[in-house]
């Protein structure tokens, strides 16, 4: 059913029984995404529009541009999801949206749309924490093996979390400065690669030698689960100043491969150490950086191979921001009767239960 028919539906849809679909909206940063998930959290429809090209000239996300793009893109994506079989307004049990952390003006667009739709369809609204979406994303559509250790590596955050149940989380560690994805993006920018730097560095690293340059592996011996990536970024900057710009083609793959190896090694070693220390035999890895092939390969060798724990890597299409992971969390909230008020505001630093306030989304130049 099309959105234009929404108004006519108000009050006409019978409650209970037939309604088992959660429609979810994600607009926390620069991806506009809408999904329909069923009552097991399985994906019925997922439509995502990337804004990468709009932000590319600025080398990062421009908040004002992101929110304007969300406004333009969102209605069409909602229409497409509602047009999928079994995803009409009459099938909806709730409408969910990311409430934070993220960019306030971007979050507002998705939230306003979701609240209006919930009101129109006379179903509950569910506000979802973006980081909880990432944390549980390796388990979309299947059972979650609590307790598990979650490594969330996105553009805005790097977190190690012990998850004991839905909403029962303990922070094991976090990045004290740049997030892992942010380090990829800033390093990519320094190297003259297009935004976002992560996939570009991975591509370029394929032809390079990961042992060519000995970049620092910060906080390996810190004894906690925290990370730091800003020193690594500085080392790359200092190195580039010494290298011959005319020979860029020759050294670029080696710099990319060595940088990538340093990030991957730290992420893998600290995850392994935390899992071992806490006796956790299930490890889940999520967030955009979880797309990285070298990270996936290293974690398989270390976590599965050496430690013998079960590794749950997020599917690459659910690694970067998407609404399916938001619908998945909303499905759990709905199942436990935890719906949100329409009065609830967005929060750029929304706390993750048990973990506290999280810094908001990225913006160009940060
Ligand atoms: O989870 P996400 O969409 O962002 C936030 O919610 O913040 O992830 C985007 C981040 C970007 O920093 C991007 O460079 C990084 O994930 N990324 C990668 C790869 N693909 C995406 N980093 C390294 N290797 C990749 N293949
Ligand atoms: Zn994200």
Structure notes:
It contains eleven helices and ten strands. It is α/β, with parallel strands linked by helices. The protein has two domains: 3-137 and 321-335, 2-Layer Sandwich (Nucleotidyltransferase, domain 5); 144-314, Nucleotidyltransferase, domain 5, CATH 3.30.420.40. The longest helix is centred in the last third of the chain and has 31 residues, at 248-278. The N and C termini lie far apart (42 Å). 53% of the residues are buried. It binds 5'-O-[(R)-(carboxyoxy)(hydroxy)phosphoryl]adenosine (KG4) and zinc ion. Residues 130, 134, 154, 321 line the site of zinc ion (ZN).
Principal-axes shape call:
globular
Full CATH superfamily name of the largest domain: ATPase, nucleotide binding domain
- Provide the gyration radius in Å: 21 Å
CATH topology of the largest domain: Nucleotidyltransferase, domain 5
Number of separate domains:
2
Give the averaged pLDDT, no decimals: 92
The N- and C-terminal alpha carbons lie at a distance of: 42 Å
> Could you say which small molecules are bound to this protein?
5'-O-[(R)-(carboxyoxy)(hydroxy)phosphoryl]adenosine, zinc ion
Low-confidence stretches: 1-16
Write the layout of secondary structure elements.
Layout (H helix, E strand, L loop, with lengths): L5 H4 L11 E6 L4 E7 L5 E8 L1 H4 L7 H20 L9 E9 L3 H18 L3 E5 H7 L11 E6 L4 E8 L2 E7 L5 H11 L6 H9 L24 H13 L5 H31 L3 E5 L6 H14 L3 E4 L10 H12 L31
Parallel strand pairs: 1-4, 4-5, 6-9, 9-10
Antiparallel strand pairs: 1-2, 2-3, 6-7, 7-8
Helix pairs in contact: 3-4, 5-11, 6-7, 6-8, 7-9, 9-10
The protein binds 5'-O-[(R)-(carboxyoxy)(hydroxy)phosphoryl]adenosine and zinc ion.
5'-O-[(R)-(carboxyoxy)(hydroxy)phosphoryl]adenosine binds next to helix 6 and helix 7.
